[in-house]
């Protein structure tokens, strides 16, 4: 296919590789003397195989083996330089996704079979979040399987998103996405994804606020409550005013939201939530999360439930003081439509600020999703 159409092609497939039979208790070689890996293969335009990557972070894949060491796999092209490869669940972990970015790879290819989980990990939501947070171009292609809630693919840069997300009742078929995007130049020195002080779109006033006086004291305390969101115990505060400045903490980790409703549907309830801890359901990984969500109903116990549609719109500034450099921002509006943050600031002290105004769609969720990779194994 690559040779016939004169293009570079990446495909996902299984790969059998021979391995030395177990000679020590630490050996991972199966009894039949071969590994089976979940694999990306890349072919250049003359049909030559130029790269092969074996998935490192498996997700309920009993038929597959984990390679003995994480693989950092790239290939070069004459039209856009270097591309890196990883697969599905890999995107939530340090190796190999962050290692690729640390080594200066700015274009990443990401085949996936992603089961969408609102309100924080819908496919296109986190695909865009990773592109923004890591400052890379991401080519993401998801399987379409309605029974398993798998849909959502896109081409993302730090300043654009071309994507498709099927809705219930849509024909279960593929969709070709085409986008012309600039080539992101590799940095002149090794960087850490999300490291240091950076800006994706610099706010003209970093002290921006919605109040008349930006020197006002910290926001007053509001009643908080506990509710489960995506199997994690979040601390929430309701957003009941026409505008406000609220703060909520989960342990020592705190999130702050300054907001002003542009359109407030009183049949919809919203809350600001914070979570810091180890997620342990269907995977183990450490998080710090600030999220504004539309609740499933008008009772606070419904905050954190899955919601796909909303009418209410707000201008907001969402901020958290993170203990990690790796923070992934997203804005998801009604009927699975993404919006690009107006500005995103990452300061050296860990403070991350996302500002957005003139929301076009009803707000389903906006999130700063922090990954504490160094705590995953504690």
Kindly describe this structure.
By secondary structure, this protein is mainly β. It has two domains: 163 residues, Nitrilase/N-carbamoyl-D-aminoacid amidohydrolase (4-Layer Sandwich); 152 residues. Helices cover 7% and strands 40% of the residues. The protein has three helices and 22 strands.
Q: Return Rg in Å.
A: 21 Å
Supply the CATH architecture of the largest domain.
Answer: 4-Layer Sandwich
Query: What is the distance, rounded to the nearest whole angstrom, between the alpha carbons of the first and last residues?
Result: 46 Å
Domain count: the total is 2
Uncertain segments of ≥5 residues (pLDDT<50)? 189-208, 210-214
**Biggest sheet, in brief?**
7 strands, antiparallel
CATH overall fold name of the largest domain? Nitrilase/N-carbamoyl-D-aminoacid amidohydrolase
Q: Total number of β-strand segments? A: 22
Detail the topology: elements first, then pairings.
Layout: H1 2-5, E1 9-18, E2 34-43, E3 49-54, E4 74-77, E5 81-85, H2 94-102, E6 107-112, H3 123-134, E7 137-142, E8 153-157, E9 160-164, E10 198-201, E11 224-229, E12 232-238, E13 243-250, E14 253-263, E15 270-279, E16 285-294, E17 313-321, E18 327-333, E19 337-338, E20 343-346, E21 351-356, E22 363-371
Parallel strand pairs: 5-6, 6-7
Antiparallel strand pairs: 1-2, 2-3, 4-5, 7-8, 8-9, 10-20, 11-12, 12-15, 13-14, 14-17, 15-16, 16-22, 17-21, 18-19, 18-22, 20-21
List keywords for this structure.
378 residues, mainly beta, Nitrilase/N-carbamoyl-D-aminoacid amidohydrolase, seven-stranded antiparallel sheet, 22 strands, globular
């Amino acid at each position: 296919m690559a040779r016939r159409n004169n293009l570079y092609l990446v495909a996902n497939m299984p790969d059998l590789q021979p391995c030395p039979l177990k000679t020590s208790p630490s050996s991972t070689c199966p009894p039949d003397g071969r590994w089976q890996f979940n694999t990306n293969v890349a072919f250049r335009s003359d049909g030559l195989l130029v790269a092969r990557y074996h998935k490192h972070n498996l997700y309920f894949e009993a038929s597959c083996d984990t390679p003995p060491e994480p693989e950092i796999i790239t290939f070069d092209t004459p039209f856009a330089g270097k591309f890196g490869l990883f697969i599905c669940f890999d995107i939530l972990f340090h190796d190999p996704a962050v290692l690729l970015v640390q080594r200066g790879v700015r274009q990443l290819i990401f085949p996936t079979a992603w089961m969408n989980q609102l309100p924080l990990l819908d496919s296109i939501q986190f695909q865009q979040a990773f592109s923004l947070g890591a400052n890379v171009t991401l080519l993401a292609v998801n399987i379409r399987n309605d029974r398993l809630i798998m849909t959502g693919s896109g081409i993302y840069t730090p300043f654009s998103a071309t994507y498709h997300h099927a809705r219930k009742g849509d024909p279960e078929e593929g969709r070709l996405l085409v986008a012309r995007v600039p080539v992101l130049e590799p940095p002149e020195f090794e960087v850490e994804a999300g490291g240091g002080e950076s800006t994706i779109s610099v706010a003209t006033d970093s002290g921006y606020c919605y109040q008349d006086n930006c020197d006002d004291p910290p926001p007053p305390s509001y009643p908080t409550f506990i509710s489960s969101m995506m199997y994690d115990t979040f601390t929430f505060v309701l957003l009941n005013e026409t505008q406000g400045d609220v703060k909520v903490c989960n342990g020592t980790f705190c999130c702050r939201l300054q907001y002003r409703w542009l359109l407030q549907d009183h049949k919809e309830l919203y809350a600001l939530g914070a979570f810091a801890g180890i997620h342990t359901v269907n995977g183990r990984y450490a998080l710090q999360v600030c999220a504004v969500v539309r609740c499933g109903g008008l009772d606070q116990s419904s905050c954190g439930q899955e919601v796909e549609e909303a009418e209410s719109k707000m201008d907001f500034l969402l901020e958290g003081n993170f203990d990690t450099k790796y923070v992934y921002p997203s804005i998801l509006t009604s009927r699975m439509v993404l919006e690009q943050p107006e500005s995103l600031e990452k300061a050296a002290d860990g403070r991350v600020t996302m500002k957005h105004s003139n929301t076009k769609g009803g707000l389903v969720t906006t999130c700063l999703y922090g990954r504490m990779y160094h705590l995953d194994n504690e």
